[in-house]
Design a protein that fits this description.
There is one protein chain. By secondary structure, the chain is of the alpha+beta class. It has a single domain, classed as Ribosomal Protein S8, Chain: A, domain 1, CATH 3.30.1370. 40% of the residues lie in helices and 14% in strands.
Length: 188
């Protein structure tokens, strides 16, 4: 943590202020997969996560610094977003105004569908949507759709934040997205 600026250290501490360690029995997903995985599968999963970490650390046109944890959870919050709104988003306490499931789509189909969905929801004045991209367990190349969703969100200008969903909504295979409030005439 010594390479971080004071501001980054403060933001990191603020982001993890409410984090509590899981008890070993609570982490069912990890034990479920680790007991069935052979060493080759474990290595593939580590390589996939490494590729995703590298992708998420690259800054794009909107210069969003996306946090990516080793567990696969990702998040980005606009600096103007209040801490209580960040917590509300992380806990999925906003009312869903739309959901999109990208399972089974090709990367091209998912790209077109997601772009259309985001523009429509923004035009409709939605504030909170759920995108389900999957975890990439059935893909030899890893979570391709997750990576593509991150790329699209990095360049989408009307966002206040996004983060991995709660397990009940898809966990690291889904994202909560919070749009900026739109003017009453729905200008984008």
């Amino acid at each position: 943590m010594s390479d971080l600026s004071k501001e980054d250290k403060f933001l990191l501490e603020q982001a993890f202020a409410d984090v509590k360690p899981l008890k070993p029995l609570q982490n069912k997903q990890e034990t479920k997969h680790s007991s069935k995985s052979n060493p080759a599968q474990v290595i593939k999963k580590i390589q996939r996560r490494t590729r995703l970490n590298q992708l998420a650390s690259v800054s794009h046109s909107v210069n969003r610094d996306i946090a990516n944890s080793p567990s696969g959870a990702i998040s980005w919050f606009d600096p103007s977003l209040r801490p209580q709104d960040i917590q509300k988003l992380k806990h999925g306490h906003y009312t869903h105004q739309g959901m999109l499931d990208l399972h089974g789509m090709t990367q091209d189909q998912a790209t077109q569908t997601l772009n259309t969905f985001l523009r429509e929801k923004l035009h409709q004045g939605a504030r909170f949507v759920l995108i389900i991209h999957g975890k990439g367990y059935n893909s030899d190349a890893g979570p391709i759709l997750k990576q593509r969703v991150i790329e699209i969100l990095e360049s989408f200008p009307s966002l206040l934040g996004f983060c991995s969903a709660l397990p009940k909504d898809g966990g690291t295979g889904a994202l909560y997205i919070l749009f900026k409030k739109q003017r009453s005439n729905n200008q984008v």
